[in-house]
Write a structure and sequence with these properties.
By secondary structure, the protein is α+β, with helices and mostly antiparallel strands. It folds into 2 domains: 31 residues; 130 residues, Rieske Iron-sulfur Protein (3-layer Sandwich). The protein is 31% helix and 27% strand. Strands 2-3-5-4 form a 4-stranded antiparallel beta sheet, with no helix packed on it. A 4-stranded antiparallel beta sheet has the order 6-7-8-9, with no helix packed on it.
Length: 174
């Protein structure tokens, strides 16, 4: 009689363990990010054909990313602090920044004639390297994590260039 009771106890324990494992698996699946979110984690931008002084807007993690190839006169006007914000790919320099104003999150517009960004909400302006030239924005546009892969820029990964910008205080972690 006791062997039948032992068998029933072990069977009940086994079914309980299987149910617990099933519940844990279901919880883990519900906590995992959706495939659409995972695929938005990395964006690759080919910089080989980007024209000078023409703003290209990409999307990364639902945010606008500004890509602006610097012309020779833009580089000549930029000081060392501004040049530190630029990304060198080959022989060219690019501004790559999250296109959200650091004041209230508006999207600044680029004026190719004046080579500057204007946030129309509160009148803040940024130069061609996304440094603040007129307040109220508290700091320049943020630089997203990036890695250089030949003539391509991979957003969402961190490379040595981005790590150096973080260490120097050129940008904040986004």
């Amino acid at each position: 009689m006791s062997s039948r009771r032992d068998f029933m106890g072990m069977a009940l324990g086994g079914f309980t363990a299987l149910g617990g494992l099933g519940a844990l698996y279901a919880m883990k699946k519900s906590w995992d990010p959706l495939p659409s979110v995972k695929s938005a984690g990395f964006t690759t931008i080919d910089l080989s054909n980007v024209p000078e002084n023409e703003l290209i807007t990409e999307k990364w993690r639902g945010k606008p990313i500004f890509v602006l190839k610097q012309s020779k006169d833009m580089l000549a006007k930029a000081g060392d602090a501004e040049k530190a914000r630029l990304i060198k790919v080959g022989d060219d320099y690019f501004l790559v920044a999250v296109g959200l104003c650091t004041h209230l999150g508006c999207i600044p517009a680029y004026d190719a004639g004046s080579k500057s960004f204007l946030c129309a909400c509160h009148g803040g302006t940024y130069d061609s390297t996304a440094q603040v030239t007129k307040a109220p924005p508290p700091r320049g546009l943020d630089i997203p994590p990036f890695k250089i892969d030949g003539t391509k820029l991979v957003l969402g990964e961190t490379g040595p260039e981005y790590d150096k910008m973080l260490a120097d205080g050129t940008t904040m972690a986004v």
